[in-house]
Amino acid sequence: MPPRNRSKEHAFTRKEMLCLIIALTFLGMLGLAAIQRGKLHSRQFGCFSRLRSMSLCFKMFAGDNGGLYPFSTTNSIAYQDSSNAWKHFLALSNELGSAKILICPEDVSRRSTTAYAFDAATNGLRQLQNLALSYFLNVDASATNAGMVMMGDRNILINGMALTNTAVTASAATQIQWTADLHRQKGNVVLTDGSVQTLRASVPIGTNQTGNLRLLVP
């Protein structure tokens, strides 16, 4: 067999090597972007899924209490204290099963204060209170008015003002908007008919409702 002519073997030139490195870097960036988009979609779906589960829990509670939510049931801890959002979810502890559901996967600033129980332990809801909650609540929501917003992402804007750990009274026509903190200026809400919606634009709190409504923002 004749000896190989090494002078004819192909070797990468510097230009070809540079092009290869650029191409591999670009493909790596595309792959990383796809992974990040997948993680973002997963977290957004996680929030949506948790709200759907909580809406079912509210329905279960109402089904066992004459159609009333915890904040409308006179023997409920929620009815006795209408100013702290976390107590309304504490009243649902039997239906919720786990306190971890109360934190949105995209609520980065509150992941470290996730409650793992409903008790007064260091990582319990009674101890962490509103810090273990990612969702506001409308304590004047009525099961007989299916178009009302009952709860939703806590990063709401009321009349252009961001709210934290407070109770606010607003008219039923008040428009809810969202900051960019959780879902890039979108918001997930639960209506009193049990449906969960993701909204980009502002939305009125109440439909076919007169008078003011009380919102508890954690």
What does the model show?
The chain is α+β, with helices and mostly antiparallel strands and 218 residues long. The protein is 32% helix and 19% strand. It is built from 5 helices and 10 strands, in the order αααααββββββββββ. About 5% of the residues have low confidence.
Q: How much of the polypeptide forms β-strand, as a percent range?
A: 15-25%
Shape: elongated
Helix fraction, binned, reads 25-40%
Q: How much is the average pLDDT?
A: 80
Cα separation of the termini: 82 Å
Kindly name the structural category: alpha+beta
Rg value:
25 Å
Main β-sheet: number of strands, strand sense, barrel status?
6 strands, antiparallel
Order of strands in the sheet with most strands: 5-10-1-2-7-8
Alpha plus pi helix count: 5
Q: Report the uncertain regions.
A: 33-43
N-to-C SSE string, H for helix and E for strand: HHHHHEEEEEEEEEE
- Extended strand count: 10
Q: What is the subunit organization of this protein?
A: single chain
